């Protein structure tokens, strides 16, 4: 509370009073960001977890291109590029004078190293299938790189903007899991495991300097604790607020701004198509009809979310509404189970550490499945366990996850992916899409792929995750929508 300062006789007393009210003495130069999940490591080129990009994308690491707030792709470390008439050769012209945070120069050798590393034997890159079309990478000169493709790839420029394709240096790449070294406007300062990650302004940044001097990401998974942290000022913003049931309180408080936006987060009940009886489409369809999407949105997300019937964001111009095809119909679900000859079915339901859609949603889905005679054994996993047991080892029947990567319908065609969806017709659609540049034809193929997933009940399609953000009313520049999994702080500042 502001008080008028009484003229004090002693200068020392005045100094003490001033020291006790620093908020009024100078403007804020840092920001404290609340996030639900802590990254398992700090290398976006070797982790599947979205939490890595949420901290590091555009802030610490940069790619040749980048995705910005409106979802478009713009130049980053590549200032421009030329594409050959046959679509097989991309020549990238790089920015000059950029340095990594350890002082080493950025040049074409780093680009070649980074792109070759994605598809190298033993690569841990979670999205390396996106870059399988790259045949070779050639250094033309320190500021020019030529990328030659095996076949045309209409998605290449977009895919190079993913966090999985950021540019790293051979001198520091192996240590990025614990000490990330990029070229971005912020550099890594400190990590307190289980608590926070701190970044500081890169004073030698090659591009437009950021206005913030530093940023601290606080990891708060518990919704009650997230609410308390915002109220107490322990965090200034929660871009993906995990307690939607309390949003109304922030909306009526002038200290805060509530921002409701969209994401690329298709939230699904993943079914392991490679395990019996989930390899039977009738069983998968039965599970789909047992699910009341709106009950999950209302009960787990307090009304925030848009029902989906296939794997594409409703904001995408190619999205088709197929929700009726897997409508809530428990009697049909029971009939389908009988047709499949399945009785006394018990399935594992392994949930990642997300309180909202996963943990609360898991309770609701378990109850809905029980109503049609399907028992579930629910296990709550920490993030590293989920990545190991579910994503890597495929040791699960059901799980609930939000896939927040943009335009990623093609993941269902990946050999050995944790869905284990192996459909020849779908695979051909995605293969054709990868080499098609005509917009009308691409739209046709995308819609056919959506229909294939819905027809085969590849997973249980639940809802598109809403972006419910709460922030200090004086904070400017946070993204309203989430076209990619990032907390981009490059345009963030405080009102003066």
Largest sheet: 7 strands, mixed
Q: What are the segments in which pLDDT stays under 50 over at least 5 consecutive residues?
A: 1-25
Report the structural category: alpha+beta
| C-alpha-based Rg, rounded | 24 Å
Total of DSSP H or I helical runs spanning 4+ residues? 13
Give the termini separation: 19 Å
Q: What is the number of strand segments?
A: 19
Average pLDDT, all residues: 92
Strand fraction: 15-25%
Principal-axes geometry comes out as globular
Please bin the fraction of helical residues.
25-40%
Report on the architecture of this protein.
The structure is a single chain. By secondary structure, this protein is an alpha+beta fold. The protein has helices at residues 11-19, 50-56, 108-118, 156-159, 223-232, 247-251, 281-289, 293-301, 330-339, 355-370, 383-392, 424-434, 439-455, and strands at residues 30-35, 65-67, 73-75, 78-83, 89-94, 134-141, 144-149, 186-192, 196-201, 214-219, 237-238, 256-271, 306-307, 345-351, 374-380, 398-403, 460-472, 475-476, 493-494. 26% of the residues lie in helices and 23% in strands. The strands form five sheets. Strands 11, 12, 13, 14, 15, 16 and 17 form a seven-stranded mixed beta sheet that branches. A four-stranded mixed beta sheet has the order 1-10-9-8, sandwiched between helices. The two termini are 19 Å apart. Helix 7 (281-289) runs antiparallel to helix 9 (330-339).
């Amino acid at each position: 509370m502001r008080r008028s300062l009484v003229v004090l006789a002693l200068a020392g007393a005045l100094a003490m009073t001033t020291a006790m009210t620093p908020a009024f003495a100078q403007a804020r130069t840092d920001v404290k960001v609340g996030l639900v999940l802590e990254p398992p490591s700090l290398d976006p080129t070797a982790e599947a977890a979205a939490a890595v990009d949420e901290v590091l994308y555009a802030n610490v690491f940069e790619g040749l291109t980048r995705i910005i707030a409106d979802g478009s792709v713009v130049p980053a470390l590549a200032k421009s590029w030329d594409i050959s008439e046959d679509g097989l050769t991309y020549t990238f012209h790089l920015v000059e004078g950029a340095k990594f945070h350890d002082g080493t120069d950025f040049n074409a050798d780093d680009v070649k190293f980074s792109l070759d590393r994605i598809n190298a034997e033993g690569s841990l890159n979670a999205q390396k299938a996106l870059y399988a079309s790259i045949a070779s990478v050639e250094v033309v000169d320190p500021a020019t790189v030529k990328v030659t493709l095996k076949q045309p790839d209409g998605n290449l420029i977009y895919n190079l903007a993913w966090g999985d394709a950021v540019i790293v240096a051979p001198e520091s790449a192996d240590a990025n899991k614990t000490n990330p070294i990029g070229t971005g406007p912020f550099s890594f300062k400190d990590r307190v495991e289980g608590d926070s990650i701190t970044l500081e302004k890169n004073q030698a940044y090659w591009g437009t300097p950021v206005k913030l001097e530093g940023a601290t990401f606080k990891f708060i998974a518990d919704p009650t604790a997230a609410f308390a942290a915002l109220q107490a000022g322990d965090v200034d913003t929660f871009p993906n607020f995990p307690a939607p049931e309390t949003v109304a309180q922030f909306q009526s408080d002038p200290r805060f701004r509530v921002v409701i936006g969209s994401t690329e987060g298709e939230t699904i009940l993943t079914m392991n198509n490679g395990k019996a009886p989930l390899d039977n489409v009738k069983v998968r369809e039965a599970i789909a009809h047992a699910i009341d999407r709106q009950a999950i949105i209302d009960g787990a997300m307090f009304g925030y979310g848009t029902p989906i019937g296939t794997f594409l964001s409703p904001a995408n111009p190619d999205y088709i509404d197929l929700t009726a095809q897997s409508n809530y119909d428990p009697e049909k679900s029971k009939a389908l189970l009988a047709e499949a000859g399945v009785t006394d079915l018990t399935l594992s339901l392994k949930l990642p550490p997300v309180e909202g859609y996963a943990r609360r949603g898991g309770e609701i889905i378990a109850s809905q499945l029980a109503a049609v005679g399907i028992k579930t054994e629910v296990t709550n996993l920490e993030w590293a366990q989920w990545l190991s047991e579910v994503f890597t080892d495929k040791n699960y029947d059901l799980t609930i996850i939000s896939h927040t990567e943009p335009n990623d319908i093609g993941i269902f065609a990946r050999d050995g992916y944790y869905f284990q969806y192996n459909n020849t017709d779908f695979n051909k659609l995605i293969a054709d899409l990868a080499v098609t540049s005509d917009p009308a034809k691409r739209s046709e193929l995308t819609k056919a792929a959506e229909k294939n997933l819905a027809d085969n009940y590849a997973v249980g399609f639940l809802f598109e995750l809403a972006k419910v953000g709460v922030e200090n009313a004086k904070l400017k520049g946070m993204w309203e929508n989430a076209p990619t999994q990032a907390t981009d702080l490059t345009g963030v500042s405080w009102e003066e």
